[in-house]
Amino acid sequence: MDFAQRMSRLGTETAFEVLLRAQALEAKGRKIVHLEIGEPDFDTPRNIRRAAIEAIEAGFTHYGPSAGLADFRKTIADVFGKERNIPCDADNVVVTPGAKPIMFFTMLALLEEGDEVLYPNPGFPIYESVANFLGARTVPLALKVENDFDLDLRELESKITSRTKLLILNSPHNPTGAVLKPETVRAVAELARKHSFSILSDEIYARILFEGEHLSIASLPGMAERTIVLDGFSKTYSMTGWRLGFGIMNKDLQKHVARLMTNSNSCTATFVQKAGIEALTGPQGEARAMVEEFRQRRDVMVAGLNAIPGVKCAVPHGAFYVFPDIRGTGFSSKDLATQLLDEAGVACLSGTAFGQFGEGHIRFSTANNLDNIRQALQNVGDFLSVRMK
Ligand code: PLP
Fold first, then answer.
1. pTM score > 0.85 for this model?
2. What is the pLDDT of residues 182-211, one digit of tens each?
3. Closest Cα partner for 92 from 268, 243, 281, 246?
4. What is the C-alpha to C-alpha distance for residues 200 and 128, in angstroms, rounded to an integer?
5. Which of 124, 170, 200, 242 to mutate to test the pocket of ligand 1 (most atoms within 8 A of CB)?
6. Is the peptide bond before 122 cis (omega within 30 degrees of 0)?
7. End-to-end distance of the chain based on CA atoms, in angstroms?
8. Structural domain for 333, as ranges
9. What's the CATH code of the domain at 331?
Protein backbone atom coordinates (compact mmCIF):
# COMPACT_ATOMS: atom_id res chain seq x y z
CA MET A 1 0.00 0.00 0.00
CA ASP A 2 1.18 3.53 -0.77
CA PHE A 3 0.37 5.83 2.09
CA ALA A 4 -0.54 9.46 1.65
CA GLN A 5 2.40 11.79 2.14
CA ARG A 6 0.57 13.59 4.93
CA MET A 7 0.81 10.51 7.15
CA SER A 8 4.52 11.21 7.59
CA ARG A 9 3.56 14.48 9.29
CA LEU A 10 1.21 12.98 11.86
CA GLY A 11 2.75 12.66 15.31
CA THR A 12 1.63 10.68 18.34
CA GLU A 13 1.34 10.70 22.11
CA THR A 14 4.34 9.06 23.73
CA ALA A 15 2.40 8.26 26.90
CA PHE A 16 0.70 5.36 25.17
CA GLU A 17 4.04 3.99 23.93
CA VAL A 18 5.62 4.18 27.38
CA LEU A 19 2.56 2.46 28.84
CA LEU A 20 3.07 -0.43 26.40
CA ARG A 21 6.77 -0.71 27.31
CA ALA A 22 5.90 -0.66 31.01
CA GLN A 23 3.29 -3.36 30.52
CA ALA A 24 5.80 -5.50 28.61
CA LEU A 25 8.17 -5.25 31.60
CA GLU A 26 5.33 -6.18 33.95
CA ALA A 27 4.56 -9.22 31.82
CA LYS A 28 8.13 -10.34 32.54
CA GLY A 29 7.46 -10.04 36.28
CA ARG A 30 8.89 -6.54 36.95
CA LYS A 31 7.08 -4.26 39.36
CA ILE A 32 6.38 -0.85 37.79
CA VAL A 33 4.86 2.28 39.33
CA HIS A 34 2.78 3.93 36.63
CA LEU A 35 3.23 7.69 36.55
CA GLU A 36 3.18 8.08 32.78
CA ILE A 37 -0.42 8.31 31.71
CA GLY A 38 -2.70 11.32 32.10
CA GLU A 39 -5.75 9.54 33.37
CA PRO A 40 -7.32 9.84 36.83
CA ASP A 41 -7.09 6.57 38.75
CA PHE A 42 -10.56 6.96 40.31
CA ASP A 43 -13.78 5.24 39.31
CA THR A 44 -16.33 7.36 37.48
CA PRO A 45 -18.74 8.65 40.20
CA ARG A 46 -21.59 6.23 40.86
CA ASN A 47 -24.43 8.64 39.96
CA ILE A 48 -22.92 9.11 36.48
CA ARG A 49 -22.54 5.37 35.91
CA ARG A 50 -26.12 4.86 37.02
CA ALA A 51 -27.39 7.58 34.68
CA ALA A 52 -25.72 5.84 31.72
CA ILE A 53 -27.27 2.49 32.59
CA GLU A 54 -30.69 4.10 32.97
CA ALA A 55 -30.26 5.87 29.62
CA ILE A 56 -29.43 2.59 27.91
CA GLU A 57 -32.51 1.00 29.49
CA ALA A 58 -34.58 3.98 28.35
CA GLY A 59 -33.53 3.43 24.74
CA PHE A 60 -30.78 6.02 24.24
CA THR A 61 -28.96 3.55 22.03
CA HIS A 62 -29.57 5.11 18.62
CA TYR A 63 -28.05 7.84 16.48
CA GLY A 64 -28.51 11.36 17.74
CA PRO A 65 -27.89 14.82 16.27
CA SER A 66 -24.29 15.29 15.05
CA ALA A 67 -23.73 18.37 17.22
CA GLY A 68 -25.02 16.58 20.32
CA LEU A 69 -28.37 16.16 22.10
CA ALA A 70 -30.17 19.49 22.44
CA ASP A 71 -30.70 19.13 26.21
CA PHE A 72 -27.03 18.26 26.76
CA ARG A 73 -25.81 21.17 24.66
CA LYS A 74 -28.10 23.48 26.61
CA THR A 75 -26.79 22.11 29.91
CA ILE A 76 -23.20 22.64 28.77
CA ALA A 77 -23.95 26.20 27.65
CA ASP A 78 -25.76 26.98 30.93
CA VAL A 79 -23.15 25.44 33.25
CA PHE A 80 -19.96 26.60 31.54
CA GLY A 81 -21.38 29.87 30.29
CA LYS A 82 -22.10 30.78 33.93
CA GLU A 83 -18.98 29.23 35.48
CA ARG A 84 -16.54 30.77 32.96
CA ASN A 85 -18.51 33.87 32.07
CA ILE A 86 -18.74 32.91 28.39
CA PRO A 87 -21.67 34.33 26.43
CA CYS A 88 -23.12 31.22 24.74
CA ASP A 89 -26.19 29.10 24.16
CA ALA A 90 -26.81 25.56 22.91
CA ASP A 91 -26.04 26.54 19.30
CA ASN A 92 -22.49 27.45 20.26
CA VAL A 93 -21.77 23.91 21.45
CA VAL A 94 -20.63 20.74 19.67
CA VAL A 95 -20.37 17.50 21.63
CA THR A 96 -17.65 15.07 20.53
CA PRO A 97 -16.34 11.64 21.56
CA GLY A 98 -13.65 13.01 23.89
CA ALA A 99 -12.23 16.51 23.69
CA LYS A 100 -9.47 15.59 21.25
CA PRO A 101 -11.74 15.73 18.16
CA ILE A 102 -12.36 19.43 18.93
CA MET A 103 -8.63 20.03 18.30
CA PHE A 104 -8.77 18.08 15.08
CA PHE A 105 -12.03 19.47 13.75
CA THR A 106 -11.43 23.12 14.58
CA MET A 107 -7.98 23.03 12.98
CA LEU A 108 -9.45 21.23 9.94
CA ALA A 109 -12.10 23.92 9.67
CA LEU A 110 -9.72 26.86 10.12
CA LEU A 111 -6.27 26.14 8.71
CA GLU A 112 -5.10 26.51 5.14
CA GLU A 113 -1.68 25.16 4.15
CA GLY A 114 0.99 27.59 5.25
CA ASP A 115 -1.14 29.25 7.94
CA GLU A 116 0.79 29.66 11.16
CA VAL A 117 -0.19 28.13 14.48
CA LEU A 118 1.37 29.34 17.72
CA TYR A 119 1.32 26.78 20.51
CA PRO A 120 2.92 26.15 23.89
CA ASN A 121 6.07 24.03 23.91
CA PRO A 122 6.35 21.94 26.02
CA GLY A 123 2.68 21.22 25.41
CA PHE A 124 0.12 18.56 24.59
CA PRO A 125 1.73 16.84 21.57
CA ILE A 126 -1.46 16.59 19.55
CA TYR A 127 -1.57 20.35 18.89
CA GLU A 128 1.65 20.23 16.90
CA SER A 129 0.82 16.87 15.34
CA VAL A 130 -2.53 17.97 13.91
CA ALA A 131 -1.27 21.37 12.73
CA ASN A 132 1.65 19.68 10.93
CA PHE A 133 -0.66 17.07 9.47
CA LEU A 134 -2.80 19.80 7.92
CA GLY A 135 0.23 21.48 6.34
CA ALA A 136 0.19 24.48 8.66
CA ARG A 137 3.43 26.04 9.91
CA THR A 138 3.96 25.25 13.58
CA VAL A 139 5.47 28.05 15.64
CA PRO A 140 6.37 26.94 19.18
CA LEU A 141 6.22 29.30 22.15
CA ALA A 142 8.81 28.20 24.69
CA LEU A 143 7.57 27.83 28.26
CA LYS A 144 10.41 28.10 30.76
CA VAL A 145 10.53 27.23 34.41
CA GLU A 146 12.38 30.52 35.03
CA ASN A 147 9.19 32.29 33.84
CA ASP A 148 6.86 30.02 35.91
CA PHE A 149 6.03 28.27 32.61
CA ASP A 150 3.95 31.30 31.65
CA LEU A 151 3.89 32.61 28.07
CA ASP A 152 6.65 35.06 27.29
CA LEU A 153 4.61 37.89 25.80
CA ARG A 154 7.59 39.51 24.08
CA GLU A 155 8.43 36.23 22.36
CA LEU A 156 4.79 35.78 21.42
CA GLU A 157 4.53 39.24 19.89
CA SER A 158 7.75 38.73 17.92
CA LYS A 159 6.36 35.55 16.37
CA ILE A 160 3.07 36.99 15.13
CA THR A 161 3.00 37.44 11.33
CA SER A 162 0.35 38.15 8.71
CA ARG A 163 -0.08 34.35 8.40
CA THR A 164 -0.78 33.79 12.11
CA LYS A 165 -4.19 32.13 12.17
CA LEU A 166 -4.45 30.39 15.50
CA LEU A 167 -2.92 30.52 18.96
CA ILE A 168 -3.40 27.56 21.28
CA LEU A 169 -3.65 28.15 25.03
CA ASN A 170 -3.82 25.45 27.67
CA SER A 171 -4.40 26.38 31.29
CA PRO A 172 -4.02 24.63 33.68
CA HIS A 173 -1.28 23.23 31.54
CA ASN A 174 -0.19 19.76 30.58
CA PRO A 175 2.66 18.90 31.27
CA THR A 176 3.76 21.68 33.66
CA GLY A 177 0.63 22.20 35.78
CA ALA A 178 1.11 25.96 35.33
CA VAL A 179 -1.87 28.29 35.33
CA LEU A 180 -1.72 31.32 33.05
CA LYS A 181 -1.69 34.60 34.95
CA PRO A 182 -4.87 36.65 34.35
CA GLU A 183 -2.74 39.53 33.05
CA THR A 184 -1.18 37.16 30.49
CA VAL A 185 -4.61 36.04 29.31
CA ARG A 186 -5.69 39.68 28.97
CA ALA A 187 -2.55 40.57 27.02
CA VAL A 188 -3.04 37.59 24.68
CA ALA A 189 -6.64 38.67 24.05
CA GLU A 190 -5.44 42.14 23.12
CA LEU A 191 -2.95 40.68 20.64
CA ALA A 192 -5.61 38.40 19.14
CA ARG A 193 -7.94 41.35 18.61
CA LYS A 194 -5.18 43.54 17.21
CA HIS A 195 -3.81 40.92 14.79
CA SER A 196 -7.12 39.13 14.11
CA PHE A 197 -6.19 35.58 14.94
CA SER A 198 -8.30 32.90 16.63
CA ILE A 199 -7.68 31.13 19.92
CA LEU A 200 -8.10 27.47 20.75
CA SER A 201 -8.37 27.52 24.53
CA ASP A 202 -7.87 24.04 25.96
CA GLU A 203 -9.54 24.26 29.37
CA ILE A 204 -9.80 20.55 30.09
CA TYR A 205 -8.06 20.94 33.48
CA ALA A 206 -9.92 24.12 34.50
CA ARG A 207 -11.70 22.44 37.39
CA ILE A 208 -8.54 20.74 38.64
CA LEU A 209 -7.19 23.95 40.10
CA PHE A 210 -5.40 24.19 43.46
CA GLU A 211 -4.60 27.89 43.70
CA GLY A 212 -5.33 31.03 41.76
CA GLU A 213 -8.20 31.59 39.36
CA HIS A 214 -9.08 30.20 35.98
CA LEU A 215 -9.76 33.02 33.56
CA SER A 216 -11.25 31.83 30.27
CA ILE A 217 -10.06 34.04 27.43
CA ALA A 218 -13.53 33.60 25.87
CA SER A 219 -14.98 35.70 28.71
CA LEU A 220 -13.02 38.81 27.70
CA PRO A 221 -14.65 41.51 25.55
CA GLY A 222 -15.00 40.46 21.92
CA MET A 223 -13.21 37.14 22.48
CA ALA A 224 -16.09 34.62 22.44
CA GLU A 225 -16.39 35.20 18.67
CA ARG A 226 -12.76 34.29 18.00
CA THR A 227 -12.23 31.59 20.65
CA ILE A 228 -12.91 27.88 20.66
CA VAL A 229 -13.14 26.61 24.23
CA LEU A 230 -12.23 22.94 24.44
CA ASP A 231 -13.26 20.92 27.48
CA GLY A 232 -14.49 17.49 28.42
CA PHE A 233 -15.34 14.93 31.05
CA SER A 234 -12.24 12.71 30.95
CA LYS A 235 -10.32 14.47 33.67
CA THR A 236 -12.88 16.20 35.91
CA TYR A 237 -15.16 13.19 36.24
CA SER A 238 -12.64 10.42 35.62
CA MET A 239 -14.40 9.41 32.40
CA THR A 240 -11.48 8.87 30.01
CA GLY A 241 -12.85 5.67 28.50
CA TRP A 242 -16.34 7.04 27.97
CA ARG A 243 -15.08 9.51 25.35
CA LEU A 244 -17.02 12.66 26.08
CA GLY A 245 -15.92 16.20 25.29
CA PHE A 246 -17.18 19.39 23.73
CA GLY A 247 -16.27 22.70 22.19
CA ILE A 248 -17.86 26.11 22.64
CA MET A 249 -17.37 28.33 19.57
CA ASN A 250 -19.11 30.89 17.37
CA LYS A 251 -22.20 29.68 15.55
CA ASP A 252 -20.70 29.68 12.05
CA LEU A 253 -17.80 27.49 13.12
CA GLN A 254 -20.17 25.34 15.18
CA LYS A 255 -22.02 24.38 11.97
CA HIS A 256 -18.78 23.40 10.25
CA VAL A 257 -17.61 21.33 13.21
CA ALA A 258 -21.02 19.63 13.42
CA ARG A 259 -20.69 18.75 9.72
CA LEU A 260 -17.24 17.28 10.39
CA MET A 261 -18.94 15.15 13.05
CA THR A 262 -21.55 14.01 10.50
CA ASN A 263 -18.72 13.05 8.16
CA SER A 264 -16.72 11.15 10.76
CA ASN A 265 -18.47 9.88 13.90
CA SER A 266 -22.11 10.71 12.99
CA CYS A 267 -22.66 11.56 16.66
CA THR A 268 -21.41 10.98 20.19
CA ALA A 269 -23.00 7.96 21.94
CA THR A 270 -26.35 9.22 23.19
CA PHE A 271 -26.43 7.34 26.51
CA VAL A 272 -22.98 8.76 27.24
CA GLN A 273 -24.36 12.26 26.67
CA LYS A 274 -27.18 11.52 29.11
CA ALA A 275 -24.56 10.52 31.67
CA GLY A 276 -22.86 13.83 30.88
CA ILE A 277 -26.01 15.72 31.91
CA GLU A 278 -25.96 13.89 35.24
CA ALA A 279 -22.26 14.66 35.65
CA LEU A 280 -22.91 18.40 35.28
CA THR A 281 -26.19 18.67 37.20
CA GLY A 282 -25.85 15.92 39.83
CA PRO A 283 -23.83 15.96 43.07
CA GLN A 284 -20.26 17.24 42.66
CA GLY A 285 -18.83 15.74 45.87
CA GLU A 286 -16.76 12.98 44.28
CA ALA A 287 -15.30 15.29 41.64
CA ARG A 288 -14.30 17.76 44.38
CA ALA A 289 -12.80 14.98 46.49
CA MET A 290 -10.63 13.95 43.53
CA VAL A 291 -9.22 17.47 43.31
CA GLU A 292 -8.38 17.39 47.05
CA GLU A 293 -6.65 14.04 46.59
CA PHE A 294 -4.66 15.41 43.63
CA ARG A 295 -3.62 18.36 45.79
CA GLN A 296 -2.30 16.09 48.54
CA ARG A 297 -0.41 13.98 46.05
CA ARG A 298 1.07 17.06 44.44
CA ASP A 299 2.33 18.25 47.80
CA VAL A 300 3.95 14.87 48.56
CA MET A 301 5.43 14.65 45.09
CA VAL A 302 6.88 18.17 45.03
CA ALA A 303 8.40 17.85 48.52
CA GLY A 304 9.77 14.38 47.72
CA LEU A 305 11.32 15.44 44.42
CA ASN A 306 12.88 18.56 45.92
CA ALA A 307 14.57 16.36 48.54
CA ILE A 308 16.43 14.46 45.78
CA PRO A 309 19.82 15.98 44.89
CA GLY A 310 19.91 17.22 41.29
CA VAL A 311 16.13 17.59 41.02
CA LYS A 312 14.17 20.84 41.39
CA CYS A 313 10.41 20.84 41.19
CA ALA A 314 8.24 23.93 40.84
CA VAL A 315 4.79 23.80 42.44
CA PRO A 316 2.08 23.16 39.83
CA HIS A 317 -1.16 25.04 40.51
CA GLY A 318 -3.48 22.79 38.55
CA ALA A 319 -3.90 19.54 36.57
CA PHE A 320 -2.31 16.35 37.90
CA TYR A 321 1.28 16.49 36.72
CA VAL A 322 4.61 17.63 38.08
CA PHE A 323 7.37 18.69 35.72
CA PRO A 324 10.65 18.69 37.65
CA ASP A 325 13.83 20.24 36.34
CA ILE A 326 16.36 17.42 36.14
CA ARG A 327 19.27 19.34 34.60
CA GLY A 328 21.20 18.97 37.87
CA THR A 329 21.31 15.19 37.47
CA GLY A 330 23.48 15.30 34.34
CA PHE A 331 21.04 13.10 32.44
CA SER A 332 19.19 14.11 29.31
CA SER A 333 15.41 13.94 29.73
CA LYS A 334 15.03 10.98 27.44
CA ASP A 335 17.85 8.97 29.03
CA LEU A 336 16.54 9.60 32.51
CA ALA A 337 12.96 8.66 31.62
CA THR A 338 14.14 5.47 29.90
CA GLN A 339 16.43 4.44 32.73
CA LEU A 340 13.88 5.21 35.42
CA LEU A 341 11.56 2.76 33.72
CA ASP A 342 14.13 0.08 32.94
CA GLU A 343 16.16 0.27 36.14
CA ALA A 344 14.05 1.95 38.82
CA GLY A 345 10.64 0.59 37.80
CA VAL A 346 9.08 4.06 37.51
CA ALA A 347 7.21 4.89 34.31
CA CYS A 348 7.30 8.60 33.46
CA LEU A 349 7.68 10.73 30.33
CA SER A 350 10.62 12.65 28.97
CA GLY A 351 9.93 16.38 28.82
CA THR A 352 10.77 16.17 25.11
CA ALA A 353 7.63 14.05 24.59
CA PHE A 354 5.97 17.49 24.80
CA GLY A 355 8.30 19.27 22.38
CA GLN A 356 11.93 20.32 22.20
CA PHE A 357 11.61 22.94 24.95
CA GLY A 358 10.71 20.16 27.38
CA GLU A 359 14.39 19.16 27.47
CA GLY A 360 15.76 19.28 31.02
CA HIS A 361 12.49 18.06 32.53
CA ILE A 362 10.51 14.88 33.01
CA ARG A 363 6.80 14.54 33.64
CA PHE A 364 5.27 12.50 36.40
CA SER A 365 1.52 12.13 36.55
CA THR A 366 0.07 12.08 40.07
CA ALA A 367 -2.76 9.80 38.97
CA ASN A 368 -1.64 7.04 41.33
CA ASN A 369 -2.20 6.52 45.05
CA LEU A 370 0.04 8.00 47.74
CA ASP A 371 1.68 4.67 48.61
CA ASN A 372 2.76 4.18 45.00
CA ILE A 373 3.88 7.79 44.71
CA ARG A 374 6.06 7.37 47.83
CA GLN A 375 7.48 4.15 46.38
CA ALA A 376 8.26 5.94 43.11
CA LEU A 377 10.03 8.77 44.98
CA GLN A 378 12.09 6.21 46.89
CA ASN A 379 13.03 4.41 43.67
CA VAL A 380 13.96 7.62 41.84
CA GLY A 381 16.05 8.80 44.83
CA ASP A 382 17.83 5.43 45.13
CA PHE A 383 18.53 5.31 41.40
CA LEU A 384 19.97 8.81 41.28
CA SER A 385 22.05 8.39 44.43
CA VAL A 386 23.96 5.64 42.62
CA ARG A 387 23.78 6.77 39.03
CA MET A 388 23.88 10.56 39.11
CA LYS A 389 26.53 11.81 36.74
N1 PLP B 1 -6.15 18.40 26.27
C2 PLP B 1 -5.17 18.09 27.11
C3 PLP B 1 -4.23 19.16 27.55
C4 PLP B 1 -5.02 16.78 27.57
O5 PLP B 1 -4.04 16.50 28.43
C6 PLP B 1 -5.91 15.79 27.10
C7 PLP B 1 -5.76 14.38 27.50
O8 PLP B 1 -4.73 13.91 27.91
C9 PLP B 1 -6.91 16.15 26.21
C10 PLP B 1 -7.01 17.46 25.82
C11 PLP B 1 -7.87 15.15 25.59
O12 PLP B 1 -8.76 14.59 26.44
P13 PLP B 1 -9.94 13.63 25.96
O14 PLP B 1 -9.88 13.44 24.50
O15 PLP B 1 -9.77 12.36 26.72
O16 PLP B 1 -11.20 14.34 26.36
1. yes
2. 999 999 999 999 999 999 999 999 999 999
3. 246
4. 13
5. 124
6. yes
7. 47
8. 5-44+285-387
9. 3.90.1150.10
